[in-house]
Amino acid sequence: MAEFLLGREVSERRLHSVRTASLETGVGEVALEQFLTEAGAFTPGDDRPRSRRTFPANIYAPLLAEVASLVTAIGLAQAMGATRGEVEALIRGGVLTPRTQNASIKLKWRIQDGLALNAELQALAVPNPSGGQGWERLQAASARAHMPVGDFISAIRAGELQVGRVAADESYHGFSVRKLSVDRWLKARADHAMRAVDALPNVMSAAEFARSIGLRDKRRFQALIEAGHAEALETVHPVTRRMQLRMTEAHIASFHEKFLTLTSMQAETGLHRNSILSLLRAASVGVFAPEGLDFGPIYLRQEAMPVLLTASGREKR
User: Where on the tree of life does the source sit, at the highest rank (predicted)?
Assistant: First the structure.
């Protein structure tokens, strides 16, 4: 219905305020203000009253229509035929993204995104005539592999995994993958990742380096790194997906410049292990233990090496 503005008939609204847009869409003013600010209608920190904060109605009409149709994560799960846990996993995996990142806004999910994912998987799916035997749902496969469900969706899209469905079930909960195919896919990924790690020049795990210099207690060596006395990279292990400390050639050189172990002292001086220990005790050189911390049999080079070089020189004479 037409409206009159200053005595002139106006067939469509030209300007909206946050307040009038809220009344028209049924969306709360606070939430609507957030969506409009993110879309560029207002600058952050604009403190004008919402009734005076106006924006072009025609430009932001699609946004208002979309915001009015947004649902909660539970509503999205119901529309997709998914459990709440399945939708939360899709969100964590980046498969489904919210219309806003504001955590206080609950109505921020597009039903069409969930239905589009269902339709995409439906188009790729093969019938599962066995009724589920030998297959597992996407959520179960993700949990068993300790991997984000987004990785499984990506593999399905790339043709690396075949998705199946029970006949006449078009819900997200009805999609599944073969267990044997998942196992083969996981092994192929692990093999590829390990080849990539092995191909890195002069990089090894901190535990492997510790063993190479005679330190068997990897926890104490890790504590040395975490305390900032030695350098390492924190990476995700390609197979276990756990955090792992790895050392480059530069990290290893830096360690050797500062520290010595019994193994490295033997290699550098040619002295017997027992001789080294006797010489260090006689010179009152102890292990590196700042503030009483126990990092194992690690010595400061500047303290230990002068003692050993003097003794080594006497033996050669």
Answer: Bacteria
Contact 266, 273 (CB under 8 A): yes
Q: State how far the Cα of 305 lies from the Cα of 171, in Å rounded to an integer.
A: 70
User: Is the whole-model pTM more than 0.70?
Assistant: no
**Token duo for residue 180:** 């044997």
* Distance, CA of 304 to CA of 265 (rounded, Å): 9
Among residues 87, 197, 178, 183, the alpha carbon closest in space to that of 127 is found at 178
Secondary structure (H, E, C), 61-109: HHHHHHHHCCECHHHHHHHHCCCHHHHHHHHHCCCCCCCCCCCCCCCCE
| Location of structure tokens 């079930």 | 169
- Contacting residues for 80 by C-beta, under 8 A, at least 6 apart: 87, 114, 115, 117, 118, 171, 172
CA distance 191 to 185: 10
pLDDT tens digits along 10-43: 557 788 888 888 888 888 888 888 888 888 888 8
* Cα-trace Rg, the chain: 32
The structure tokens listed for 158 are 């790339």
Per-residue pLDDT tens digits for 253-303: 999 999 999 999 999 998 999 999 999 999 999 999 998 999 999 999 999
3-state secondary structure of 185: helix
80, β-bridge pairs = none
CA distance 245 to 243: 7
**Cβ(297)–Cβ(260) below 8 Å:** no
| Cβ neighbours around 37 below 10 Å, total | 18
Residue type, 190: A
